[in-house]
Amino acid sequence: MRGARGSDAADSADAIRPPSTAWRGDDRAVSETVSFVLVFALVVGSVGTVYAVGVSELEGTRDAERVENAERAFDVLADNLRDVLEGAPSRGTEVKLADATVRSAENASMNVTVDPDGGESVWWEFSLRPLVYESAAGGEVRLSNGAVLRDSERGGAAVVRDPPLIADGVADGTGDGDARVRLTLVKQEHVGSAAIGGSQTVRIRTAAGRPRLFYDADGGHDIRVNVTTPYTDAWERQYESSGFDCTEVTEPTADTSGTISCTVSDVDRVTVVWVRVTTSFE
Hints:
By secondary structure, the chain is of the alpha+beta class. It has one domain. The protein is built from 3 helices and 15 strands. Strands 1, 3, 4, 9, 10, 12, 13, 14 and 15 form a 9-stranded mixed β-sheet that branches. It is elongated, with a radius of gyration of 36 Å. The protein starts with a helix and ends with a strand.
C-alpha cells in the first residue's frame, strides 16, 4: 500500500511540473527573430526616408549653387565687357556649364527716343541679343545691354549688375535743374555657334568696335526708353531706381516678351553712346 501511495505522489508531481527549459529556449529564439525583423525594417525605412527627402534637398542645393556660380561668372563677363568698351581689344571669360546651356537669345530689344526742347526728336532701335545661361533644373542668368540679370523657377527676376547708365540729378522722373543722363547703347552680335551645352567649360570671347557718340547736347530734354524683354519687372525697378518713371505696356508670358516704357523729363544734358559688341564661344 505504501508503494502505491508513493507512485500516486510521483504522478501528481509530474502533473504540476513546469514547462521544460528546452521550450523556453525556443521562445527566446522567436523573440530575437521578431526583433531583428523590426530593427531591419526600421533601418530600411530610415534609409528610404533619407533618400527620398535628403537626396532631393541635396540636388536642389547643388542646382542652386550652380546658378550662383554662373552668376559670378557672368559678373566677371560684365567686367570684361566694360574693359572692351573702354578700349581693350578683346577679353575671354570662362564659364563652367554643369548640365546647362549658354546661348544667344533673340527675345530682347530696346528703343530710345530723345526729344529736345524746340528741336526734332532723334531715336535709336536695336536688338539686344543677350547671352543666356540656362540651367537644366531651371533658372537663368543673362548679360543684356551690359547688365546681368537673374531669374529662377520660383518666379521674379532681378538686375544683379547695373547697365552702363549714368543719371545724375534725376529724381522721381523730373530733373532738378542740373540733371544729366548718359546712355550707353550696347548692341550685342553673336558669331559662330548660337548655343553650346553639356558639362564642359566654355570660353566666351568678347570684342567691341570703337564707341560712337550719337548725341550730346545741353538744354531741356525728354527721354523715353522702351525695353522689350522677358523680365519687365527687373528692368522697371532698375530704371525707376535711376529716376525714370516706368509703365508696363505689355506683360510677358511664358512664350513671349513684354515691354516697358520708361521716361524722364527736363534733363539738362543728354549723351548717347553707341557700341557694337561681338561675342563668340571657344
